[in-house]
């Protein structure tokens, strides 16, 4: 870690801590976007592999805190309630992972980003796309399959879950907890995978652990903001961040 930290200027270290603090705040308040914010910012002054390594442990531990904030029983209840979505993601990620070298990621980013932009944009304009309650199970399975397929190919499976939660008007606390549960599963897989790949190693793991501190502080502040947000504002900010996520995916897809 000393060699890694010595390679950063004081300004870069300050930026890394500030970005992680802000990303933790957003995650605590809304429930997602932490890896996107950290990776986008870190990638501007660090190699991509190192930027990825730094966000692994903050992402893992903040997802754990998010999933279990209301206790084990509440987290388990979310797993049971959204078991079909979770099951489809878990099943289809490994099934489609083999296509990662066949289908260009740039194409997948565009195909994922455009529907997200359309959905969030239409919702922000006040046009409801809520799913009929008698179609909920079907929608959960379909969006879970979509999330799993995109997850296996691009490593991104969160947006379909957000679309589902927004469509069924899930209460804000439940929505954040469910995101934490689903993202925690992915964070565990990510951590184990990169311990094996060498991305998370004796040099990068301690540095990633240091960033857990600003991430935890930011998330604590975000939780406080979340508790004060009314349902309408929570939904609007979620849609705004979802729209930005979709635009960022399209940007990556077309190479800007």
From TrEMBL:
Protein name according to UniProt: Probable membrane transporter protein
Keyword Kinase on entry: no
Keyword entries, A-Z: Cell membrane, Membrane, Transmembrane, Transmembrane helix, Transport
Mode of membrane association: Multi-pass membrane protein
Gene Ontology cellular component annotations, sorted alphabetically: plasma membrane
Similarity comment text for this entry: Belongs to the 4-toluene sulfonate uptake permease (TSUP) (TC 2.A.102) family.
A Pfam entry, by short name: TauE
Location in the cell: Cell membrane
Positions of transmembrane segments: 12-30, 37-62, 82-100, 107-129, 141-166, 178-200, 206-225, 237-254
Native source species: Pseudothioclava arenosa
